[in-house]
Amino acid sequence: MINTVKYLSVSLILLLSISSFAGDIAKGKAKSAVCAACHGPAGISASPIWPNLAGQKEQYLIKQIKAFKAGIRKDPSMAPMVAPLTEEDIKNLAAYYSSLKCQ
């Protein structure tokens, strides 16, 4: 019984901590309007020079956006786009794009 209570307590703590890191898909969709100019309204780019964002893994998107923001990845088009993004914006955008299906 004690082990079950411990297990449930640890599981609940992990679940709550994981969900606190997850972005909000609806807020990400609202924030993605600027991104749509290059990456397409559904995260599928019409141009071969810009990547599709739809269906990318959430943590990958977070890592790449943060790399652009920090100047680790350099792109003259992306730098001004990511500069104003907050940590919450980044999580929300990543949640939104990772929720989309690639075509």
Protein architecture, described:
This protein has 103 residues and is an all-alpha fold. The chain has a single domain (23-99), classed as Orthogonal Bundle (Cytochrome Bc1 Complex, Chain D, domain 2), CATH 1.10.760. It has helices spanning 2-21, 25-31, 36-39, 58-70, 78-82, 87-99. α4 (58-70) runs antiparallel to α6.
List the topology elements.
Layout: H1 2-21, H2 25-31, H3 36-39, H4 58-70, H5 78-82, H6 87-99
Helicity level: 55-70%
Q: How much strand content do the residues show?
A: under 5%
CATH class: Mainly Alpha
The number of helical elements comes to 6
Largest sheet, strands/sense/barrel:
none
Domains, number? 1
Sequence of secondary-structure elements = HHHHHH
**Count of DSSP E strands?**
0
Query: What is the name of the CATH superfamily?
Result: Cytochrome c-like domain
Question: Which overall shape is indicated by the principal axes computed on the Cα atoms?
Answer: elongated
First-residue to last-residue Cα separation: 49 Å
**CATH topology label:** Cytochrome Bc1 Complex, Chain D, domain 2
Ranges where pLDDT stays below 50 over 5 or more residues in a row are none
Q: Which structural class is indicated by helix and strand composition?
A: mainly alpha
Average pLDDT figure: 88
Instruction: Give Rg in angstroms.
Output: 17 Å
Task: State the gist of this model.
By secondary structure, the protein is an all-alpha fold. It has helices spanning 2-21, 25-31, 36-39, 58-70, 78-82, 87-99.
